[in-house]
């Protein structure tokens, strides 16, 4: 048996979790700092680091007690090494190193981006998908505040990076859009909520790099994303309608139309990739995968014969269960890290899925 303690501190969530044998989540505790950063309109790295310092012990104790274990039972400590905000990462990384060294446990640094992909496989059903050779090739759409990527994973673990954002990530576009509309932080959930009362067809926002509006799309950008143009279009839209900014219906229609544009791009590219590469399973994970419109549109457009696997909502935004689960795969292979590992801000290109 492998009981892994996961620690996550890459952005504005401090989290600890205990996962058994890679899939069974025994506990997953998350302390959010959102309220602290909301007043600044976004995440302040140094503030995040200080908050992690305060919160780590507070998430560790319940993570262990809810799992019904003590540090003695833990086989290894897995921690997010990157990508993320360096000051924030360093706090979790140092904490995890201290724990592992103090308790004489195996130590594993893992990639947060890969953790997001892995979050779609937590639980027994997820294990079934991952271990079934008929699930491959598998297409992963990772959509968060920091990432927007499409990847193909083959049964032997080989990874092909089809494309990613060339500027803003999808979550970042929602966060910045919400700020422009005066809706607060984080933008994704508040745009979704505001859009519930709006008409997504009321205004048209561009769908960059989709070949829409008669713009030729180069082969190179087929699966790349660009969200900065949508944000600029929103800025002009807000300027044009400055007299309507206090009109709740205008804001709701704008939020709904903006959300629809972002989701439309994500779904179009995902389906194009799914058909082109003849995939058997599509997985979607990361904070933006919480979005109800994205979830329902992916469901609507996934062709018959392809299985859609959406990460459970509670595992979409940053958490430590995905880190502990992914860490177990390193544990079972005997792949451990030294205490000299450093945090990294940007993720190296992944060519092999470590969970296969
Ligand atoms: O995965 P995550 O917690 O952190 C990163 O690794 O970036 O993702 C956070 C992102 C934020 O941009 C947030 O606005 C977005 O996920 N998000 C959502 C929703 N909930 C969170 N976006 C759209 N709809 C939601 N319901
Ligand atoms: Zn994340």
Your description of this structure?
- About 50% of the residues are buried.
- Helix 6 packs across helix 7 and helix 6 runs antiparallel to helix 9.
- The protein has helices at about 35-40, 45-65, 85-105, 110-120, 125-130, 170-180, 185-195, 230-240, 250-275, 290-300, 315, 320-335, and strands at about 5-10, 15-20, 25-30, 75-80, 105-110, 140-145, 150-155, 160-165, 280-285, 305-310.
- The two termini are about 20 Å apart.
- The protein is an alpha/beta fold and about 350 residues long.
- The chain has twelve helices and ten strands.
- The protein is about 40% helix and about 20% strand.
- A hairpin with a 4-residue loop joins strand 1 and strand 2.
- It binds 5'-O-[(R)-(carboxyoxy)(hydroxy)phosphoryl]adenosine and zinc ion.
- Zinc ion binds near residues 112, 116, 144 and 318.
């Amino acid at each position: 048996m492998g009981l892994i303690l996961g620690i996550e501190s890459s952005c504005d969530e401090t989290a600890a979790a205990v996962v058994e044998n890679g899939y069974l989540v025994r506990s997953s505790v998350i302390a959010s700092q959102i309220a602290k950063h909301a007043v600044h309109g976004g995440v302040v790295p140094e503030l995040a680091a200080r908050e992690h310092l305060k919160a780590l012990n507070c998430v560790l104790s319940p993570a262990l007690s809810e799992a019904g274990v003590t540090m003695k039972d833990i086989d290894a400590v897995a921690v997010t090494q990157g990508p993320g905000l360096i000051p924030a990462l360093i706090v979790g990384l140092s904490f995890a190193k201290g724990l592992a060294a103090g308790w004489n446990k195996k130590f594993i640094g893992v990639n947060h981006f890969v953790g997001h992909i892995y979050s779609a496989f937590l639980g027994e059903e997820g294990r079934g998908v991952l271990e079934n050779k008929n699930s491959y090739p598998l297409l992963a759409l990772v959509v968060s505040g920091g990432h927007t990527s499409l990847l193909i994973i083959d049964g032997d673990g080989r990874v092909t990076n089809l494309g990613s954002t060339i500027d803003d990530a999808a979550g970042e576009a929602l966060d910045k859009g919400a700020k422009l509309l005066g809706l607060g932080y984080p933008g994704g959930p508040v745009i979704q909520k505001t859009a519930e009362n709006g008409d997504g067809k009321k205004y048209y926002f561009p769908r960059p790099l989709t070949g829409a509006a008669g713009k030729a799309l180069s082969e190179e950008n087929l699966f790349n994303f660009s969200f900065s143009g949508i944000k600029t279009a929103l800025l002009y839209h807000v300027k044009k309608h400055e007299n309507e900014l206090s009109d709740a219906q205008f804001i709701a229609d704008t939020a709904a139309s903006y959300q629809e544009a972002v989701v439309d791009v994500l779904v179009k590219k995902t389906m194009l990739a799914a058909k082109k590469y003849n995939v058997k399973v599509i997985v979607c994970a990361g904070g933006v995968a919480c979005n109800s419109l994205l979830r329902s549109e992916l469901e609507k457009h996934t062709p018959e014969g392809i299985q859609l696997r959406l990460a459970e909502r509670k595992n979409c935004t940053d958490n430590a269960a995905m880190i502990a689960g992914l860490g177990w795969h390193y544990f079972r292979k005997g792949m451990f890290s030294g205490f000299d590992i450093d945090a990294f801000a940007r993720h190296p290109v992944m060519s092999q899925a470590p969970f296969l």
